[in-house]
Amino acid sequence: MKINIITLGCSKNTVDSEKLAGKLQAEGHTVYFDGQPTQAIKQSRNHAIHFDTVIVNTCGFIGDAKEESINVILEQIEAKKRRHNKTRLIVAGCLVQRYQTELQAEMPEVDEWHGTHFFSLSEPLRSLSTPSHYAYLKIAEGCNRSCSYCAIPLIRGAHHSRPIEEIVDEAKTLVDSGVKELIVISQDTTYYGLDLYHKRALGDLLERLATESGAPWIRLHYTYPSSFPLDAIDVIRRHKNICNYIDIPLQHINTRILTSMQRGIDREGTLKLLEHFRRELPDVSIRTTLIVGYPGETREEFEELKEFVRTARFDRMGCFAYSPEEGTAAYRLADDVPQEEKEQRVAELMNLQEQISYEKNQARVGNTYEVLVDRAEGDYLVGRTQYDSPEVDDEVLIPIQAINQSCLSDSERPATNVEQINQTMIGNFLQVRITSANPHDLFGEII
User: 30-33 and 88-93 as β-strands: parallel, antiparallel, unpaired?
Assistant: First the structure.
């Protein structure tokens, strides 16, 4: 059969879909991601191919994500009707795990509904939906945290670590297939190992990945501030192939709100942790996310958060308006910050961060960095330094017409059009001098 997998939500869902695709391909099916053949960069989900089966891997994390998932299901129901119901429609994943009964009643056109059990963490086969030079490496499933606003433990269940040997073997397989960047993910990477090894073993895992996987870049995502395993920072410092990059959602800085959020850390602990990162890794790039409009957040508490952003000077930052989620502890609290005010606070924080990002990017002008090229787009090659993760962070734009032909070998020198340059440079590392910058992108030239 021709099977199309549409993946919504986070990178953990991406891995789930890729492992399902690997299994389906092994069974003889032809698998597409969002209408594109496997191993191709995702583009539009609208495509002329007539699929025998469409699988929608949904997200149920917050309100906007749930709305997107429902809209995509409705789109696929309409597409199924246009094909006179010849396409089998399967909906699975997080949204179904939470709301299967309600969804079945509202959308009888869907042929099958499955929760998160539809995807296997231990499935050995995998087909990448990302560009072939980077891949997400999921090290655990589920979450044992009790953050008051978060439904993930309700959806994914308790934390379950994969054995280090299994993860390292998968990493080696990915690198052997051409992957050059491994992005370590789970619901909470800093909790890794407690269930298997009775200790936080993220540092041990990173050590094994750095020395055994062969990956030029290893990147750490989804860390948690409470009880952060500081030995992992020492491992990052000692290994050049681990990016100086930490993704750590802090959510807030006010101690009262952090306590209500059940984050297990206060203002003082947060500041000490950031100080430790920057003392031990002076060149570190820190990405965080924050929540505004949490129940009871006063204007004064929000101003405290703004001042924190102003002084902490994060390299990258995202911000979300609080979304009440059924079944969570915070759902019992009065959602008393008006939506308009939430959106205003998001805008204020992001405007502040935009100026910080501009200043930090300007400081990189004139410096030379190793850049991993992700794609060609218009007149540019588009890549990233070690300080930026794909899809969510800044990019480096290199004008194709300005590429110095001397950087190519004799056999490659005739490659002057976009298609030929794609074949030569995408997925490779280049030394790039930064010539200019704006708040979101760097511009450079190959040296």
Answer: unpaired
Cα distance between residue 367 and residue 105, in whole Å: 58
For 162-209, the DSSP string reads: PPHHHHHHHHHHHHHTT--EEEEE-S-GGGTTHHHHSS--HHHHHHHH
Alpha carbons within 13 angstroms on the beta-carbon side of residue 313 total 10
Question: How many Cβ atoms from other residues are within 10 Å of residue 262's Cβ?
Answer: 16
Asked if residues 373 and 394 have their Cβ atoms less than 8 Å apart, the reply is no
- Of residues 402 and 73, more confidently modeled: 73
CA distance 246 to 250: 12
Residue type, 250: L
With the C-alpha atoms ordered 228, 231, 237, 241, is the resulting torsion angle positive or negative?
negative
**Per-residue tokens: 256:** 């009262």
Token pair recorded at residue 361:
């990017």
How far apart CA 399 and CA 412 sit, in angstroms, is 18
Q: Angle, nearest 10°, between helix axes 231-238 and 202-212?
A: 20
Over residues 65-122, the pLDDT tens digits come to 999 999 999 999 999 999 888 999 999 999 999 999 999 999 999 999 999 988 877 7
DSSP 329: G
Q: Considering all CA atoms of the chain, what is the largest pairwise distance in Å, rounded to the nearest integer?
A: 68
